[in-house]
Every structure is written in structure tokens, then in C-alpha cells.
Amino acid sequence: MKKIITLALLLSVGLFAQKLTIQGSTTVLPIAQAAAEAYMDNNPDADITVRGGGSGTGIAALIDGATDIADASRPMKDKEIKTAREKGVNPVAHIVARDGIAVVVHPDNPIKEISIEDIKAIYTGEVSRWDKVGGKGTIVVVSRDAASGTFEAFNELALNNAKLTDAALMLASNLEIARTVAQTPGAIGYIGLGYLSDNVKALKVEGVMPSEATVNDNSYPLARPLFMYTNGNPKGLAKGFIDFVMSAPGQKIVKEAGFVPVK
Amino acid sequence: MKYILSVLLLGLMVFGYAEAPIYGYFWTRYTFENPTTPEVEENENYFSIERGYIRWKTKTSPVSFSGTVDITSKKDATASTDWQIRLKYAQADWTLPGIGEYLPDAKLMLGLQKVYFGIVDLWEYAVIEKNLEEAEKKMNSAELGVGFHSLLPGGYGEFSVQAFNGNGYSNVVEVNTNKAFVGNLSIVPIPGVMLKGSYWMAEQPSGDTIITQVTQDRYVGLVQLKYGPVTVIGEYLGTKDDETNGMGYTGFAEFALTKAISILGRYDYYDSDTDVDNNGHNRIIGGINWSVSDHLLTQANYQIMTYEDEERESEDKVMVQFKVSY
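Predict the joint structure of the above. Result:
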């Protein structure tokens, strides 16, 4: 009898569980995953599935009705908005975090600031010595691997999608970049704001120091908003989840994931 | 004109080879037709490859190149002459800088390109039959020429103007000194509602020579509604070939039973000369689509044509089609 009751309870939980699907940007993925786990811990009836795939994939899934929330590290394109509207989908953007990318060098490097133009020249291989931008010695270019959202953002914001030099050392995480730059005197790298420490020196970019304040007031040039898109104003579980991400505990998750809270 | 196409293809190969993924579709169809005339006693049934698209598209900027080769077979194709390979699209898109905020995605289109007209550029073969304009041979889906296309700000729609030779993509060589012009505007005032109007004007040869030219007008008004699992499209088509006025309309509805399965219906009416009594015909289509996977769509349609001319018998057929995308 106990087995039957247990099975019935499990079935009833399954039948009445509220389901939510989230899909999209790999940059937003750590926020969405951590927030979903925290939300489900507090709401056992909620069944949230989180997938990556990239911003374009998530937006396409929202337009096709295959996901409830699309994570995106860029605003929707006009073409995507038009397609969505034609298909009866009214995309509503929720800025849940900001992504600030700090350009870092070894602490002994005398350089204190850098321009976007010089960053591009260094990362495309046009400039290979620090002498040309105010330092000394050979530059060791360190980058995130091409599959990462941080690479995608840096490539767009700093390099204007130019091809990265073949000499760049491609690393798999922010931590690895911070560690490599800290141990290599001639190195230059870029990391999320949450990974800054005294072991590396963050440079001013176009005269602005990276910080939560300069990212949030849009004065720091290597920053972008991160979005969660819903079809119309969110309702039910989607509303509960978005509200949670925007709440103090949700924004704490944002910060722990290495991004800049918006509240 | 062959030189233009050659340059476009060369551009595609030179500038785009590194990042020009190949993709496309193959439609394999089985058709079972009932006899259409008393003289034909046996049913006809055959396999065919109705369309096989091999596509390229480069990611170069501000000029990108794209091309589509279309492979089709005649029914019961056996000999090599039963196959046809045509260039359907060979296009260079030049994104126009500086007006993106006011005219998002504005671009100049050069070459063999999509015709923005009524349901023609919207039709993705939800049912197997061609759209009304193409089924009645009143419009081609691709033409050779130049065009300007832009979205309206805020995702509120799009517009385009194009100038073509006007002979379709099967016969891109100019046989007509006059050009065809087409304008198109679609507006999405609220999500799920699209209103569209298009106008085509041309002077075309009345036969194989250019001795006699006839004026040609085409115009459509279209409404598309989408809400949840329901899609409804209604279109009115007006045609004028010299002094001959024609008219028609099409209604299409789709209801998605699940994310993979939908049922569909369509009704067409067209009368090529409204001054002639009992000249029109009706086309009724019912079908079901099953998306077996992201790469395989299975379609089954029943289609019947009836004629206002009582002496002409109706024609019906069953078609099953597999669309494989890669």
C-alpha cells in the first residue's frame, strides 16, 4: 500500500509540476543554471530546464514557441523582432545582469591604460611589442577560447569581429587567463569583472577604469547588458523566475557568476 | 547577363569559400493521380524529386554572396535528360551603411534573387502545391535584376522595390527590352497580424519574339494571422494581361496539433478572364504534416481541382512528400 501511495504522490507531483524551459546564450547560462537550482530548491513544484546553444538559438526557440525564456548576450536583431511579431510573439526584454570585461596585464607592466584601437592592434597581431603602446618587451596575447561567450563579447566590443592573431594563447576559463597573466610578465588578457584580483593589473580602457559603477553607468566601453526574453510580460512560473533573478538573492547569484548586478 | 551571373558566382567562390557553409533541402515526392480525361484509362503514379536545393551563403561584410542550385526530375525520371539543373539564386547583398537606425538591415540586392510579392516570398510549402501565383503561372519566385530591401524600424514590417528582366529564373536571358518592376510593403501592426500589398508591372512579349508586347499587371492584398497553434492566410490576386482581366483568391489555414504534427487546408479560386463565363477553377487541398526530426518533414496531401466549365471533369491526386534538410 505504501508503494502505491508513494507512486501516486510522485505521479501527482509530476502531473502538477509547473514546467519552464530556458534556452540561449552560453554567457548567461551560468546565471540561469544557478538561479534555476536556487529557485527549485525554494519551489519544489517548479520544474525548470536550462539549455545553452547560443543567443540566436534561444531567440529562435522563443519565436518558435519551443522555450519560455530566451537567454541572450545581445539585443534581438530587427529581423528577429520582425519574424517574432509576424509569428504572433511579442518579445519583451529583461536586463538581468551586465557583462564587464576587464583588460589585464602583469602587475609589473608599467602600462596603466589602453585604447580600443591598441587592443585591436595587439589582438589582431598588428602590434607585437609593448614599446609601441607604452611598455617594454614582447607581448604575449592571451584569449578565451572561441566557443566562450566572453570571447564573443570581447571580439565584438574590442575587435569589431576582426580575426584574432594565430599567436594568441587560447585558454578555457577566466581563472586560467588570470593565472597565466599573473605569471607572465609580457602577457595581456581579458577576464570578467568578477575575476579581478591583486595578482593582475586592470587597465583603464579609453580612460575609464572597469568597475561595477562604470559598467552600470555605461561609461566603461567593454560592457554589455545580458538579457532574458519572454513572449509578452511573463506570467506564472516565468514571472516567478524572472522576479527571483531580479531580487536580491538572484542578483547575488549574478555577482557570484562573475557578472555585474543591475540592482 | 551570363557575365553578371559568372561574376556573382566567382565572388561567391573567391570571397566566401572559407565561410560559405553548404546547406539545402531535397523534396522527394510520390504522386498518385486519377485519370483526367476519358482517354486516359489508367491511374498515373510516380516518384519525383520536385526540388533539390544546394545552397551557399557567405558571411562576408558589407557584401555577402549567396547561391542556390535547383535540381529537379521529371516524373519517372530514368534517362539523364529527365533531370534538370538550374541556378535559382545567385545574389550579392550589399548592406547599406549609415541608415541602419532608420531603415534596419537595408540592402541592395544584385543578381538572380527572390521576388518579394504577395504570398510568393512567404510560401514555405506548408502544403505540397505551389502558392496561387506560381500555381497559376502568374509569377516566378526568382528573377534576375536589382532590388532594394529594408525592414521597417521596430520590427513593424518590411518593404522592397525591385527591377527585373521579368522572364523568371528558368529563362534569365533577356528577350524583352522592357523591364518588370515590383513593389512590396508588409506591415505587422500588432504581433500575429501581418498586412501585405504588392504590385507588379511589366511589358512582356506575347510569344517567343518581341514583336508584340503586352502590358502585364499583378496586384495582391494579403492578411496573415497567427495565434498560438493557428495560422490563417487570405489573399486576393488581381491580374491583367493586355486587355484580359483575371482575379483569384486563396485561403490557407494550419492548426498545430502538437509541436511536430499539424493539419492543413487550402482553397484557391482563379479565373484567368473574368469576361468569359464559367472560366474559373477551384483547388481544394487537405493535408497533414509530421516533423519526424529537425531534418525530416513528412507531408501527405489530397488535392482536387474542379472547373466551372461543366464539361470539364475534376482532377484529384494524392501526394506524399519527404523533405530532407541538411
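Residues 2-16 of chain B form the longest helix (15 residues).
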